[in-house]
Design brief:
167 residues, mainly alpha, Helix Hairpins, 2 domains, 7 helices, globular
């Protein structure tokens, strides 16, 4: 009976995703790219939660292999009122939400969807980091490469431990 219920739910999720895809492809700027990304995100979550065999695990692993220009797509959703001050202050707020999620897991125990909620909060943080980077004229790739360069320098100098940016 549970297997039958699971199959019915899976068919309904598949049908709902198809209707959302058709709506997304036809009604938004960058609709095809964004909707494809949303469907992949939904499928990745679905397969990650419901992976029962090797094939599902394989599909979930490879869905993340698509190369997207995250920053450009994310900023296409930025509202005119989400200025530089908003982005920076909201970054602190989103980090606070992640910390609150972790604190509640300590206090109340981890919920079944803890990892999924963590992933969503990290996505919100990533959006804010992308916005702050854009506000300063950086791409996320610039920031990531600069950070790797800094870490490589610290590793070569034997200063990964310690504190301060200029070590």
């Amino acid at each position: 009976m549970l297997q039958s219920l699971d199959q019915d739910v899976t068919r309904q999720v598949d049908a709902d995703e198809h209707h959302l895809a058709v709506l997304g492809f036809s009604s938004r700027p960058f609709g095809t790219q964004v909707t494809a990304h949303q469907l992949m995100y939904t499928l990745e979550d679905h397969f990650a939660v419901h992976a029962r065999d090797v094939q599902h695990a394989f599909v979930a692993q490879h869905l993340g292999a698509v190369n997207l220009d995250y920053q450009a797509e994310a900023m296409s959703f930025r509202l005119p009122t989400a200025n530089a001050d908003y982005a920076l202050q909201n970054l602190a707020g989103e980090v606070g939400e992640l910390l609150s999620l972790k604190a509640k897991a300590i206090r109340d125990g981890r919920k079944m969807d803890h990892d999924l909620q963590t992933k969503k909060e990290l996505g919100d943080i990533l959006w804010c980091v992308a916005a702050v980077a854009e506000d300063h004229g950086f791409t996320l790739e610039d920031v990531a490469r600069g950070n790797l360069w800094k870490l490589e320098g610290r590793a070569a100098a034997g200063t990964l431990k310690g504190s301060g940016d200029d070590r």
